[in-house]
Amino acid sequence: MDSNSKGVLEMDEMEQPKLSSTLNVLTILTFIGSGLQIVSALFQFSTAKSNLDKSDEMISKMNADGAPSFVKNMIPDPVLYKQMMIQSYENRIPILIIGILAAVLCIMGAAQMRKLKKQGFTYYLVGQILPFISLAAFIGFFIFAGFAFYFGAGITVLFILLYFTQRKRLVY
C-alpha cells in the first residue's frame, strides 16, 4: 500500500491503525485535566462552607474605594455573588458528584479514543458539557457572568473542536 491509499489513518508495520500524535497529546492532556478537575471538585466541596462564610468580607473588599476597577468588575453584582455562594454551599454534594462523574466520563472517553473507538468522543463530549448544565441547574444562570466561566468554556470548546477534527482517525 502506498502512502496515498492509506487516507487519513496512520498504520503501523502490521497495517493496524495507529494512534496519531495529535490524538496522543490530546488524550494525555485530558487525563491530566480530568485529574485536576477531580481534585478541584473535592477542594471546592471541602471549602464550600469557608467560602460562604468569607463571601461578605470578599464583597466588601472588592467594593472598597482603594480597589482597582478590574477587581471591582470581578463581582459585577454583590447580591448575585452572595446568592451564588449560598447555592454553591447548599448544592455542594450534587455538584461534587456531577463534577467527578464528568471527569470520569472524560477519562473514559479519552481512553476509548486511545483505542481508536468512536464512542469515546461521545463519552468525552458528555463529560465536558455536563458540568455547565449542572452549574446552571444548581447555582443558577448568573454563573455564566464571569471571566472564569468564559475562560473555562473557551478551553472546553477548543478541546471539543480539536477532538472533533480527530474523529476521522477513530475507526472502531
How would you summarize what this structure contains?
By secondary structure, the chain is mainly α. The chain has seven helices and two strands, in the order ββααααααα. α1 runs antiparallel to α5.
| N/C terminus separation | 21 Å
Q: For this entry, what is the oligomeric state of its chains?
A: single chain
Name the poorly predicted regions.
1-6
The global form is elongated
User: Can you count the helices?
Assistant: 7
**Which whole number gives the mean pLDDT?**
85
Would you give an account of this structure?
A hairpin with a 5-residue loop joins strand 1 (10-11) and strand 2 (17-18). The model is unreliable at 1-6 (pLDDT under 50). A two-stranded antiparallel sheet has the order 1-2. The protein has helices spanning 21-46, 48-62, 69-72, 78-90, 92-114, 119-138, 147-166; strands at 10-11, 17-18. The protein has 172 residues and is mostly helical.
Explain the layout of strands and helices.
Layout: E1 10-11, E2 17-18, H1 21-46, H2 48-62, H3 69-72, H4 78-90, H5 92-114, H6 119-138, H7 147-166
Antiparallel strand pairs: 1-2
Helix pairs in contact: 1-5, 2-4, 5-6, 6-7
Descriptive labels:
mainly alpha, 172 residues, disordered N terminus
